[in-house]
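anyone seen this seq b4? input:
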Amino acid sequence: MTHQKRFFIDWSRSQKILSLLALVLSVAITSFVLWASQTANATPTERVLAQQNTAVQITETDHSIIIQPKTLAKQGLVFIPGAKVDPWAYAYKLTALASTAEITVVITKPILNLAFFDQRGLATFTNDAPAVHVWYVGGHSLGGVRACQYAAGGTAKGLILLGSYCANTVTIPTLSIAGGQDGLSTPTKIKDNRHYLPNTATLVEIGAANHASFGDYGVQAGDGTATIATGKMRMQLTDVVTAWLAKQNATTNN
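predicted toks r here
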């Protein structure tokens, strides 16, 4: 009887411990999901301006925002937002790129707003524009880090990084644009991770831009101070990326 009583006491203690651990885990998961759902929202003005751009057609799905130029695009860009940033925060700047470079842009909606947790294949997003057969991949901040992983998969023709850098080796043509006032993906950090990119990579710095300048979602903690207006930043980004894409197309055609 003594052994049986001790067994029941030990089992009761184990049940209490397991219940406590389950409660702690449940609270941790709930807290994390709530934290991840608190995104830096797109500024209302720029979101409206993006949606009013008559040079493009914007379609939204449960996993992406698709920006298509009015002319038939032969190439596309899968673009991954920074961590906990509303995908719409990139629409204003990328609508200009779509219309100027005649490229379809698919902005992803990462699971839990964190690209690292989004392990869906690149085809999940390229399938949104079946008429496009040549794809680039890119991203901002931690979204760029995830784009580097896609770039190593052998599907994309090139990689475009905005205020970001790779943590894995990339061999495809790469464009990396840094902000001179970026307090997060600083020019120094980008330079320190330069060895992951091919020797032919194109590195550009927009001196007046900070980390948040690559999107439109307001001030970001730890960032530097930008001295460039969002409209001018939009034009500079569009010019740099369009020129680089034209160079890639010319190389392919020769």
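The chain has seven helices and eight strands. The two ends are 89 Å apart (CA to CA). kinda curious what u guys think
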